[in-house]
Amino acid sequence: MKLLAVAGARPNFVKIAPLMREMRSRRGLESVLVHTGQHYDERMSRLFFEELDIPRPDVDLEVGSGTHAVQTAEIMKRFDPVLRREKPDAVLVVGDVNSTIACALTAAKEGVPVAHVEAGLRSFDRTMPEEINRVLTDRLSDWLFATERSGAENLRREGIASERIFLVGNVMIDTLRRHRERSEQSAILETVRVSSRGYAVLTLHRPGTVDQPELLGPVLTAIAELSRELPVIFPVHPRTRRVLESGAGAWLACGGSDIRTIEPLGYLDFLKLLAHARLVLTDSGGIQEETTVLGVPCLTLRENTERPATVEEGSNVLVGLSAERILSESRRVLGGAFRPGRIPALWDGRAAVRVVDALVGRTQRSAFSEAPARVGMPDHAATQPLENIVAEPT
After folding, report:
1. Alpha helices per DSSP H over the chain
2. Distances (CA, A) of 86 to 74, 115, 156, 368
3. Backbone angles phi, psi at 318, to 5 degrees
4. Judging by DSSP bridges, how do beta strands 114-119 and 298-300 pair with one another?
5. Residue 324, Ramachandran bin (φ over 0: left; ψ between -120 and 50: alpha; else beta)
6. What CA–CA distances, in Å, run from 189 to 44, 47, 85, 184, 316?
7. Backbone φ and ψ of 370, nearest 5°
8. For the purposes of burial, counting CB atoms within 10 Å of the CB of 314, is it exposed (0-12), middle (13-18) or buried (19 or more)?
9. Residue 205 burial (C-beta neighbours within 10 Å; 0-12, 13-18, 19+)
10. Less packed terminus of the chain by CB within 10 Å, N or C?
11. Per-residue confidence (pLDDT) for residue 248, from 0 to 100
12. In the prediction, which pLDDT does 65 show?
């Protein structure tokens, strides 16, 4: 049996690492790793692969940057001959980036079954390119692996059969749990000159925020004000840096502010930086999940989230882009008004095991010509039909 796994951007690397490890531990299972090159910074890509023990890609499509249309089309053009040559039993895609939808669409057109890990997440905001990628990938997929209950419920509402939906947990948290202790060896706190719980972390990268000065300005004004109360460490995404260098970064230089801009970090450095922060402010989806498991207060600079479990159960609060709300919620946290919440069900470090168990069982049953049988999995919760998983209290 052969599975072809796809990764293309840094968030994909964190998700694909435990899946590749699990697939390569199974007898009789051949796995092929394709790197699309969507994130092509050689230093950062190599660092993630080394730190997370991801095997060297079997294929590198070297696509590089471009508009959404150009990048998606180029991935499809380069992925198609790989698919024809490798003839896999299934294609495994993760997340919601352009590589995800491009490879899922190519595989579906060639009649190759698609498995989507991190299925069902919905912000219900079609202005986000990631939302379009998520919805379309799920419609194309044969097996849909949800990280949280809302994802499984969304898929059911969209008419996807229960037998194709699995609530397996979060592979990103598999990676966090595996590397949390090792990340403590990082010297990042000394490098940026802060002490544990004595700083905030800021990340901004979504086009809907950073590309609109009328939205970005008030956010940075609030952050500059906050930084007078504690330092703000700001690893700057390449897209955001271009915007700041064009003049939008004037707010960072407000008198008395202490915003420390640094280059993007590798996984282990960034994990330690998150784990020891007093407060995290972000527009990233994955960071909402990581801070929930770490028990660190997270303020999400968006009006919506596709990861509602981080708000309903975890440590995440949606604050939008209002400077007043950002400051008021930040000061609530600094004043001690914070609830750590709890970790969502099945975020236990074994999501990749459940995914591979299901894939092995389904492909061996050739489940496309008849109604697929349900597959047994290691955990009691994961062995239940979906309707029981969703109804079962956590």
Report:
1. 10-23, 42-51, 68-86, 98-109, 129-140, 149-157, 171-183, 188-192, 207-210, 213-226, 238-245, 267-275, 285-294, 309-312, 323-334, 351-364, 386-391
2. 19, 17, 33, 20
3. -80, 125
4. unpaired
5. alpha
6. 20, 19, 47, 10, 23
7. -150, 165
8. buried
9. middle
10. C
11. 60
12. 82
Q: Give the integer Cα–Cα distance in Å for 327 and 393.
A: 36
Give the pLDDT of residue 211.
81
Is residue 271 a contact partner of residue 242, using CB atoms and an 8 Å limit?
no
Mean residue pLDDT of the chain comes to: 89
Do 83 and 2 meet the contact criterion of CB atoms below 8 Å apart? no
pLDDT at 3: 97
By CB atoms closer than 10 A (0-12, 13-18, 19+), residue 79 is: buried
User: Which one-letter amino acid corresponds to residue 116?
Assistant: H
- Asked if residues 133 and 103 have their Cβ atoms less than 8 Å apart, the reply is no
Query: What is the Cα–Cα distance from 28 to 203, expressed in whole angstroms?
Result: 42
DSSP single-letter state for residue 230 = S
Q: What is the pTM of this model?
A: 0.90
Distance CA 243, CA 213 (A): 9
Sheet holding 114-119, edge to edge: 59-60, 30-35, 2-7, 90-94, 114-119, 143-146, 165-167
Tokens 């092929």 map to which residue? 32
Token pair listed for 188: 């990042």
Residues contacting 309, CB < 8 A, separation 6+: 148, 149, 150, 292, 344
Q: Indicate which residue of 205, 237, 276, 380 is catalytic.
A: 205
DSSP for residue 249: G
Residue type, 347: W
pLDDT grade for 387, boundaries at 50, 70 and 90? very low
Please provide the size of the chain in residues.
Answer: 394
Can you tell me the distance from the alpha carbon of 105 to that of 101, in angstroms, rounded to the nearest whole number? Answer: 6
**Catalytic annotation on 237?**
no
pLDDT band of residue 371 (cuts 50, 70, 90) is very low
Q: Please give the pLDDT value at position 9.
A: 86
Confidence of residue 14 (pLDDT cuts 50, 70, 90): very high
Q: Which tens digits make up the pLDDT trace of 173-209?
A: 999 999 999 999 999 999 999 999 999 999 998 888 8
Instruction: Give the pLDDT confidence score for residue 103 in this predicted structure.
Output: 98
